[in-house]
């Protein structure tokens, strides 16, 4: 095999210029990776892939014009030789399964380290599936509640999420302050607040029990960063400012 055959050609698609530029800088420093194109939205990503025919696309999910999942589906259909590796802030079940069903070969969250991103790019370029540790655990353990359909198998070299190294979360309400017998069930919360996803209702139920983010993460087999994402989302949907308000609403 000649030296050019060893180079992995990559396109980076992210609507945030600072993130996109950072990824390009990091990847271009690696001797076996060559960034051949960039895109700031999904539609442009599809066009750049057609122009450059890369081995891997590093794809954000939430982008203007055409979202990452839709762009992934088009790229996989039109360029089956190109692997899509999702790199996003979101790790909820709907986002993960949507990306995998669209044909993504890998899924990382943006708290992944440089080494994890590089390893994942190399892995998907070889035809393997690479998932962030908490994402893989949920799929393997069947914890993607309410989401049907099969997902690609996880390679033995699956990248491990570094979410536990993220910044400290808001302090939890002491368990003694919230009697467990008074805590609502996830099913009941979902019925009362249908705007919540199943996972958000589960998180809220555990918050109402007075559990910390670390305890919630352990209960649901997800990262602390994923728990914080769900908490921020349910706070916004329920129009509450903090855990105390969320608990009061959940128990009302």
Gross CATH architecture of the largest domain:
3-Layer(aba) Sandwich
User: H/E order of the elements?
Assistant: EHEHEHEHEHEHHHHHH
* Largest sheet, spatial ordering of strands: 2-1-3-4-5-6
Mean pLDDT: 79
The CATH superfamily title of the largest domain: Response regulator
Give me the number of helical elements. 11
Looking at CATH, which topology of the largest domain would you report?
A: Rossmann fold
Low-confidence runs of at least 5 consecutive residues: 143-181
Give the CATH level 1 class of the largest domain: Alpha Beta
Task: Describe the fold and architecture.
There is one protein chain. With about 250 residues, this protein is an alpha/beta fold. It has 2 domains: about 160 residues, Rossmann fold; about 80 residues, Response regulator (Rossmann fold, 3-Layer(aba) Sandwich). It has 11 helices and 6 strands. Helix 3 links the parallel strand 3 and strand 4. It is elongated. The N and C termini lie far apart (about 65 Å). About 15% of the residues have low confidence.
